[in-house]
Specification:
Distance between the termini: 61 Å
Structural class: mainly beta
CATH architecture of the largest domain: Sandwich
Shape: globular
Largest sheet: 6 strands, mixed
Helix content: under 10%
CATH topology of the largest domain: Immunoglobulin-like
Number of helices: 4
Number of domains: 3
Length: 431
């Protein structure tokens, strides 16, 4: 007797075969922010009023939606399709039916597309609200935003992470200098207090999961112990824990490409050629042993903007921008990576720099849309695990985001995001 596969599982299996064939992602791999097509550039997710907004949307709120933006450098029109996938707290796909997750369908065609205007690099700009009128999650948790270049979901071109929050647990966070011997001048200690309110949690160590992220860097997402140091009936305190101890790092470097008519901040020279614009960033020295210099930065973020035109998303040029790092005397690194919020994933091997023995510099050229960019340099065996080579200081200004997940002991097989907060180490308004 022939055994037939249920339609839902057959469809899911077929979809995962398509994703794996085109991108190398398997059903057990966690989703990461990635771009798979060389023609896709300028990827960012933000609100219309805040270019530095974290990818967090509160379930059932009247807050404005997030908006996904990206450019297709091939120009013209393609039927890009956006799909949301519910994930566990480790960003692997959750074992849920579509009807359990969404009020309607889990995908829709991206309708908003506009050609670039008066630019040397022709492109088509696409944008889409998340959630939209017809694509709305009804549960909280982690979601992967998948964009395909077709309506058959066969050509995956990019992935972005999204957090959907149900605000059930109030989170208070404080950043202070570390008290640990030898780390007082280099590290920052994060202390937390959770107030569960009416959410009944019988076993915090089993049912709760805490994660902390520094400066919106998914590669620095740090799991924390779920059991508090002090446990009260309506207040759980996490204080002085080594898992909540972070290297302060250094202030980000910056490059200003908001004008192509003259060199901006950090730019040595910029020229126009027949094929487009090229810019060279001033050669950067390493900072691992230099004193800390406090300066205003965007904590690793960026913004698309130009001074000459009114519509930055469709009237901004793309610039081939060359970065150069000069190691200090006696310094040697096996590999160096450029970390910049330019639309690529921090794990993208395309951000590996090249060593030029004739100049003694690490060099990398990337294609950036006009705007203002924070960046820094990393070193390590591969980009996902690379660490900054910029030095570390307790006085560095950083943003911290705290994620609180709840896994019902007898519920659906997914993790609810029940608490979230964002705090700045200097008490400033977080960007």
């Amino acid at each position: 007797m022939m055994v037939t596969m249920p339609r839902f599982f057959a469809l899911a299996l077929s979809l995962w075969v398509q994703i794996s064939w085109s991108t190398g992602i398997t059903a057990t791999d966690p989703y990461r922010d990635q771009v798979f097509a060389s023609s896709i550039a300028g990827v960012r997710i933000q609100t219309e009023s805040d270019p530095f907004a974290s990818p967090v949307w509160e379930l059932g709120s009247s807050n404005p939606p997030l908006v996904l933006h990206f450019d297709d450098l091939d120009g013209g029109y393609r039927p890009f399709t956006l799909r949301l996938v519910a994930c566990r707290r480790d960003w692997t796909p959750a074992d849920l039916f579509e009807s359990q997750v969404f009020e309607g369908l889990d995908r829709e065609l991206i309708q908003d597309h506009r050609p670039s205007f008066n630019t040397l690099q022709r492109y088509t700009h696409y944008s889409h609200p998340i959630p939209s009128e017809t694509l709305r999650p009804k549960i909280s948790g982690n979601f992967a935003i998948l964009v395909y270049a077709d309506q058959d979901l066969e050509e995956l071109v990019l992935v972005r992470r999204l957090l959907v929050l149900e605000n059930r647990v109030s989170v208070s966070a404080l950043v202070r200098r570390a008290y640990t011997a030898g780390q007082g001048s280099s590290h920052q200690q994060l202390d937390l207090e959770l107030y569960p309110g009416r959410l009944v949690i019988q076993q915090p160590a089993l049912d709760l999961s805490l994660q902390v992220m520094q400066n919106g860097d998914w590669n620095r997402l740090q799991p924390c112990p779920s059991f508090p140091t002090l446990l009260g009936p309506q207040q759980w305190t996490y204080r002085g824990l080594s898992d909540l101890l972070f290297a302060g790092g250094n202030e980000y470097r910056a490059v200003d490409l908001r004008t192509v008519r003259a060199p901006g901040r950090g730019i040595e020279r910029i020229i126009r050629t027949v094929e487009g614009y090229e810019a060279w960033v001033q050669t950067d020295p390493t900072r691992g042993t230099t004193p800390h210099l406090s300066q205003k930065d965007l904590n690793g973020r960026s913004m698309v903007q130009n001074f000459e035109q009114r519509q930055p998303h469709t009237e901004s040029e793309y610039v081939w921008t060359t970065f150069a790092l000069e190691p200090g005397p006696g310094e040697s690194y096996p590999k160096v990576y450029l970390q910049i919020d330019g639309g690529l994933s921090a794990c993208d091997p395309a951000l590996a720099m090249e060593w030029q023995s004739e100049t003694g510099l690490w060099v990398k050229s990337i294609y950036l849309k006009q705007g203002f960019y924070d960046y820094q340099y990393l070193t390590g065996p591969e980009p996902c695990s690379a660490v900054a080579l910029e030095g570390t200081h307790a006085d560095t200004e950083n943003d911290y985001e705290v994620l609180v997940y709840y896994h019902p002991p007898a519920g659906m097989a997914y993790d609810r995001l029940v608490g979230y907060t964002k705090v700045n180490s200097m008490g400033q308004k977080s960007r």
